[in-house]
Design brief:
By secondary structure, the chain is mainly β.
């Protein structure tokens, strides 16, 4: 028997019936009945087992490969509660009318059950595609170069990845977010929306099934009663009793807290369990504090000359390869590494925004996009600095399972390819998430990599160290408030800083002394950890206040 499927199994768009949205972050407003191409949502369909392989119309056979033309693009048409998978290039449908061993892509009647599929959600955008006529699953298990539909084993989160598919949004109306299944003993915010704007006294409504008590904190600027220049963690709500269903409400006095990005930590518990939920919001009516570029030079660069600065207070300048722009949105030399893909500024699911005097990078599993900027372009042109130099970035990142914000540096020759000798200095790599199978870290990591330099490279001393942020400086984490992260490279030492406090050093590598340096800022996902943004409506934000680079002598 065909297993019961979720209504509109994956909250994905049918074509030609598609949700129209003025803003991808907003809820879909209404259904448009139209057949125009710009009203159709198209996806690339990626195999989970072989992540570099995507299905395409191979001229009768449904094949898989690594191309990127229209033969790899698909829309999902609604038919009697099932989906028909139609190719953009040919207009033909994936079907098994000539047998399950080799799936075809041909013209079919709209009543043909061999071309009708159940789209079951396994995790977020990862789906199984089950044929209506034989109850079996689309797969590439036998690695024949074409897809089959002959597996009757139902794929799940741990097995049969060859019959699991990730629907990667490409164009057309943005799909609405996945519905959230609320788990026992976990805290979920019902309103306001995650990553939304607020002002004034804001009621935060949340639920935590099985929990009995709650409190909430947020980082606060200095006050007369708490004059620490770093600010302090303010417990603005406590002794909150939840009702029998685990529902509660707290009031956040936004006017009293910093203007701009804030992270509210909601802690819930009962006699045996406890949980933390991190609500990211943008405070539109708070206190301006420590925002923008300081007038003075940072202590680590006091004898150097300022050669680069970006306050992100003007329209962003980003392009796919960096041409005609300040930044490139992919890693020069190849090797984009995020589980949620780095996406172009020009794309419909653009992850970049300029908000007040910040650059926001939004990671969304709903639109399958997140962002990276590189000061070096794909062709090797762009901004670089020579030793001695100092790079710094002021930013705040999200903590959610699999979130991976970073500011890091590489030597220029890497643009020639992944086999090129290169040095990499990770000024901050932060790994988000709490609970089972998550890092559970309030600190971040600094790291050195000497790539493709043989035995000589292996002998060079570097560093791989977690920085205990809650024990230095203002004693706050990378996700609770802004911090300044810096790296200074001299002919003798490479030194790492957090808020101008030295947190690590090692001898400067041989290549580091001669190669020009460039920088990256990114909000990646993964890093060896499972990615699960469901609690946060599949959306998290990173804000960058500024980047500064110093070089040589001040004179």
């Amino acid at each position: 028997m065909i297993k019961a499927m979720n209504l509109f199994a994956s909250v994905m768009m049918a074509c030609p019936f598609a949700y129209a949205q003025e803003n991808p972050a907003d809820d879909a407003s209404k259904i448009q009945n139209t057949t125009s191409a710009d009203k159709i949502t198209y996806y690339r369909i990626q195999n989970r087992w072989k992540s570099d392989q995507y299905i395409y119309d191979g001229g009768t056979d449904l094949k898989y490969g690594s191309g990127n033309d229209d033969s790899y693009l698909w829309c999902l048409e609604e038919k009697d509660g099932f989906k028909r998978i139609r190719n953009k290039s040919t207009g033909e449908y994936a079907n098994i009318k000539n047998g399950e061993a080799k799936v075809e892509c041909t013209v079919t009647e709209d009543t043909d059950r061999t071309a009708q599929w159940i789209v079951n959600t396994i995790d977020g955008t990862i789906k199984s595609l089950q044929n209506r006529s034989n109850d079996k699953f689309l797969n590439i298990e036998k690695k024949l170069g074409y897809a089959g539909c002959d597996l009757d084993k139902e794929p799940n989160e741990t097995n049969w990845f060859s019959s699991q598919w990730k629907l990667i949004y490409v164009s057309g109306p943005v799909p609405p977010p996945e519905s959230i299944v609320k788990l026992q003993y976990m805290t979920y915010v019902n309103s306001p929306e995650y990553c939304s704007d607020i002002k004034g006294r804001t009621a935060i409504k949340f639920s935590a099934k099985g929990m009995t008590d709650a409190e909430a904190t947020c980082w606060h600027q200095p006050t007369t009663e708490n004059p620490d220049p770093w600010g302090y963690e303010s417990k603005f709500a406590e002794n909150i009793k939840l009702d029998a269903e685990g529902n509660g409400t707290i009031e956040f006095p936004a006017d009293d807290f910093p203007y701009g990005p804030v992270t509210i930590k909601i802690r819930t518990w009962n006699e045996k369990k406890k949980d933390n939920c991190y609500l990211q919001l943008y405070n539109k009516d708070g206190v301006i504090w420590n925002q923008g570029i300081p007038k003075e030079s940072p202590a680590p660069a006091e004898d150097m000359k300022l050669i680069y600065v970006d306050d992100f207070d003007k329209p962003l300048s980003i392009s796919k390869d960096g041409q005609g722009a300040t930044y490139c949105s992919h890693k020069p030399g190849g090797g984009d590494f995020s589980a949620v893909p780095f996406t172009d500024f020009e794309a419909p699911n653009n992850p970049f925004s300029q908000v007040d005097s910040y650059m926001r990078i939004r990671c969304s599993k709903n639109t399958n996009s997140t962002g990276l900027i590189s000061s070096l372009r794909i062709d090797g042109t762009g901004f670089t600095a020579n030793v001695p130099c100092y790079f710094e970035c002021r930013m705040i990142g999200p903590t959610a399972p699999g979130s991976w914000p970073a500011f890091w540096l590489m030597t220029r020759s890497v643009f020639k390819g992944l086999k090129e000798p290169a040095d990499e200095l990770d000024t901050i790599e932060a790994y988000g998430g709490e609970g089972p199978k998550s890092p559970n870290q309030t600190g971040y990591w600094i790291a050195t990599h000497y790539w493709n330099q043989g035995e000589e490279g292996k002998k060079q001393k570097g560093i791989y160290q977690q920085i205990p942020m809650t024990k230095i400086g203002g004693k706050s984490s990378w996700y609770s408030t802004f911090h300044i992260y810096g790296t200074k490279i001299t002919m003798t030492d490479t030194i790492y800083y957090c808020d101008n406090i030295e947190v690590g050093r090692h001898p400067t590598g041989k290549l580091s002394k001669t190669e020009p340096w460039f920088f990256f800022v990114n909000l990646a996902t993964g890093g060896g950890w499972p990615v699960n943004l469901k609690r946060y409506n599949n959306t998290v934000d990173m804000y960058v206040d500024y980047v500064r680079v110093y070089q040589g002598n001040k004179e």
